[in-house]
Amino acid sequence: MNRDPAPHHPLVQRLIDARRVSDALFSVVKPEYLYERPIRERHRIVFYIGHLEAFDRNLFDERLCPLPAFAPELDQLFAFGIDPVDGGFPTDQPSDWPSLDAVHDYANKARKQIDERLAEFEFGSGGMSTGSPDQLMHVAIEHRLMHAETLAYMLHQLPLEMKAAPQDAAPKAASARNVECSPMVRVSAGEAVLGMKREDGRFGWDNEFGEQRVQVEAFEIDRYMVTNAQFRAFIDAGGYGNRAYWNDKDWAWKEAEGVAHPVSWSQDADGKWMLRTMFNDIPLPPDWPVYVSHAEASAYAHWAGKTLPTEAQWQRAAHGVPHAPSGNYDFRSWDPQAVDATPDNVSTFGVEGQYGNGWEWTSSLFEALPGFVAFPFYPGYSANFFDGQHYVLKGGSARTAQCMLRPTFRNWFQPRYQHVYAGFRCMRAL
Predict the structure, then answer these.
(1) 194, 311 in Cβ contact below 8 A?
(2) Domain 184-429 classified CATH 3.90.1580.10?
(3) Residue 84: is its pLDDT beyond 60?
């Protein structure tokens, strides 16, 4: 699956580069384990091998160029999304899926078919208008890059012996530093801008359009993301056992699932905390950001006498961050780094590291911006999740593509989903 299309228009080259990222991720899994399901809410790994190519084929067909069906049953099989149906868990068995040879054959043929047409296509007409060739290419590119991050955190949960570490995955050693206390910085009252105008002519997903200007009162916010050391203090203080810190739904989930610590934490025989990275178990690095669910982040914030910021507050706090900040993103690393490792990735107010190193939970439900219009070629991308059950995340992680670090980008997940590379910082009203 490494045949490059030609000629290499910049958009085509970006698709090629995105394919290389996803192909490299699948190669991390030893072939005999590609039918595993590392996270019960998600499909088996083999699904995504077919899905990425099926998505492109289904998106481009008759919109960008005609792509006659050669395996319509597989187009349909690999077309459906990643969320469970009606809140349940998938019940399929490995035997329900085509053989690995059949899946690879489908993916190769789909990619070859697309490449042959892209080699003949001229881009540039229609700009970023709805359904234009350039817009469709951006959708295909970013969809694949989103899945590259989804696959990374899925594979993170796969047992270590099922993976083959690439050469760039050198083992990480725990840092000796300990960021025990995150100073809070003052963010002055002012305007936060969410989303963008359609007439700006930039690419964005449907939920990014509908510029909204929000007046935000002054507040304080953590300079850094909450660290493993800080979250350990919450655990040591009995935070997971104190009902007062949790809302009703989060407490019921925690009790039912037996959640007592972040999903990638464990304790060795001596009671020492360990962290599961992608390819190793290492002593818990105290100055890395903690990755937790919205439920756990909210409980910590309550314990600390603070709250999570709203989407508008987070955006206000990020005012003045350089357009291309330094940071841990764009697949540069498999792991986080210290929360204070990028002193030039800082906002006007002194808030550090908001882009990269971990998505950040907000207290805002994922909702439409004013004048929302769903993409007609992908109507369920956002609209299916305006359900009061998903919260906005901002920023990005080490496995987030650089193109999605734009200030308007909005991520979202359910509050009790632990697997995302997501942490948080707290705020306090003045």
Answers:
(1) yes
(2) yes
(3) no
